[in-house]
Amino acid sequence: MSNKFFHTAFGVYGIVYKDNKLLVIKKNGGPYINRYDLPGGSLENGEGLNSAIKREVSEETGIKIKNYIQLGTMAFKYPWKYQRYEWNEHICVFYLIKGYEGISQNKVSQFIGQDSLGSKFVELNNLNVDNSSPLVSLAKRYINSGKFEFDDITFNKWHILEKQTF
């Protein structure tokens, strides 16, 4: 892979599930546009991981995290033409959200950098590779198995959706 020109993205992501449903956002930007994605995203300048996961989940869903644990870190690599790059390496720190307050919002405030149209709980059986990001697929496997995968995943093809799946 060393001959590929990579863009590197780094972010924190929360897994919130109850009653066999996963809390997802409706993505409106980036390589996962028009798919369900996990709430989360990039750190702001000087921000720590713990502050970032709380802020990102709140901004994208409306809930306030109260109790959480870090599950682990892994990366997804896939072709994506962005600026001068040919590939994307998305490094993700995953958190299991064990406690929160508030109600997830179907619509959230829009501002520069906001890539969520809102959130909702979706039945695990209704989340698949055609309508979800690879982060959602990993979260679904974690929920079903109780084991977190640490191996990076490379996709030789990645399809950017032009129409919403939600």
From TrEMBL:
Keyword Amino-acid biosynthesis attached: no
Domain Nudix hydrolase: from-to ranges: 5-144
One Pfam family named in its UniProt record: NUDIX
Keywords: Hydrolase
InterPro entries attached to this UniProt entry: Nudix_hydrolase, NUDIX_hydrolase-like_dom_sf, NUDIX_hydrolase_CS, NUDIX_hydrolase_dom
Tree of life domain: Bacteria
Gene Ontology MF terms in the entry: hydrolase activity
Keyword set includes Iron: no
UniProt-listed PROSITE patterns: NUDIX, NUDIX_BOX
PANTHER family noted in UniProt: ADP-RIBOSE PYROPHOSPHATASE, DIHYDRONEOPTERIN TRIPHOSPHATE DIPHOSPHATASE
Family classification: Belongs to the Nudix hydrolase family.
Protein name: NUDIX domain-containing protein
